[in-house]
Specification:
Helix content is 44%, strand content 8%. It contains 13 helices and 11 strands. A hairpin with a 3-residue loop joins strand 5 and strand 6. Helix 1 packs parallel to helix 3 and helix 2 packs antiparallel against helix 3. The longest helix has 25 residues. It is globular. The termini are far apart.
Length: 379
């Protein structure tokens, strides 16, 4: 007689509970969805939690049973959705295994130019907010699962490709953050939409971080410095860094135009279309298409190259108090991987070489009021 696995016992137990409140047809659908969750790599604990989640939704019946079941099936495939987060939160997989599972479900691969491409059965939820709990817990799993940072020397048994994929996934979270702000809030500029997001969600914006790595200068070759790269005189700051209250999501703002500065404004799909196609009425984002990562297809000496180099990046660590010599967590999870570890794509590495960061300068914009003054002058 075949021995019943622990997973099958969990599924059976969950189904018996479901049958008390669900019709036979509904219970069968949920059972099949559980099986599909297992097929995607989720463990028994996550699948059982999924069953309980759907049962609760059906019990309250705020929507029709059919609507609830269809929505739950869709959200299984959306990293960051309420259903997906429920699976992620209740999974008993180790933190590093959770990170790997998300990357695998998103269909991770590194192309010939070293850029992470996502082409899996799952994709990032287009309704996920910059301050979502999923992003916070995913970042926590990265820090617990990769102690010592995303540094090759700290993890001799982990492949360079895996560390590079974990690092570059941050940029796809950035893409979603931009899309969320641009498509859900009203305003004449990106900054007005960001302020509307802050007001409507109660998220305080943080203006106090340095924006030096996002105000790059043209490579001159005249006087280069090994630490600060460029010595072209006093640097005029035009871009400011604004972070969410939790310090993980960030936006780079051109204070003269009120527009976000991002590589996603310039990157194209393999079909030659811009990732973001904005009109006065709406924002269209081509989120499912592969990205053209060939540096030869971009003019990196002009504004395109500068914006790719100046881009924002989601952070696995909030960076607060990182100036303390015994902390440096943000340094090892977010800064060094793109710097000394060279985990960025060839496209971004070349853009940064052509647009090195400047010498230290005094930050001009520490509050919303200081930015508003400049924007009013430009009107």
């Amino acid at each position: 007689m075949r021995k019943i696995s622990l997973f099958e016992q969990d599924i059976s137990s969950a189904n018996s509970q479901l049958n008390r409140t669900l019709s036979e047809k509904e219970a069968l659908i949920v059972s099949k969805q559980q099986e599909y969750c297992r097929h995607l790599g989720w463990d028994a604990a996550a699948c059982e939690a999924y069953a309980a989640y759907v049962e609760e939704q059906l019990e309250y019946r705020e929507k029709s049973a059919e609507e609830i079941l269809v929505t739950s099936e869709e959200e299984i495939h959306l990293a960051g959705s309420s259903v997906y987060f429920h699976l992620f939160k209740h999974s008993q997989l180790a933190p590093r295994e959770k990170v790997r599972l998300v990357l695998d479900q998103l269909g991770r691969s590194l192309d010939e130019h070293g850029m992470l491409q996502l082409s899996g059965l799952c994709r990032i939820d287009p309704d996920m907010s910059p301050h979502s709990e999923f992003l916070e817990q995913f970042a926590a799993c990265v820090k617990i699962g990769y102690p010592g940072g995303l540094i090759a020397a700290s993890h001799p048994t982990i492949s360079w490709e895996e560390l590079k994929c974990v690092h570059q996934l941050r940029y796809y979270f950035d893409r979603q953050n931009l899309f969320y702000i641009r498509s859900n809030f009203k305003g004449k500029t990106d900054y007005e939409k960001l302020l509307a997001y802050s007001k409507q969600t109660g998220q305080k914006l943080n203006y106090r971080d340095s924006s030096r790595f996002h105000n790059r200068v043209r490579q001159s070759g005249k006087t280069m410095n090994s630490k600060y790269r460029s010595r072209e005189g006093r640097h005029e700051q035009t871009n400011d860094k604004i972070k969410t209250e939790n310090g993980l999501s960030e936006f780079i703002l051109n204070v003269e135009t009120g527009c976000f500065v991002s590589q996603w404004n310039r990157l194209k799909t393999v079909g030659g279309k811009l990732v973001f196609d904005e009109t006065k009425e709406s924002t269209v984002a081509r989120m499912k298409e592969l990205i053209d990562s060939n540096p030869e297809n971009y003019d990196l000496t002009g504004h395109v190259g500068k914006e790719i180099a100046d881009t924002e990046s989601f952070n696995y660590d909030r960076g607060f108090f990182d100036w303390l010599p015994w902390r440096r967590v943000h340094d090892y999870y977010d800064m060094k991987p793109s710097g000394q570890e060279k985990f960025d794509s060839d496209l971004r590495k070349l853009a940064k070489r052509k647009w090195p960061f400047p010498q230290k300068y005094k930050e001009c914009y520490r509050t919303a009021r200081s930015i508003q003054k400049v924007l009013k002058k430009e009107e």
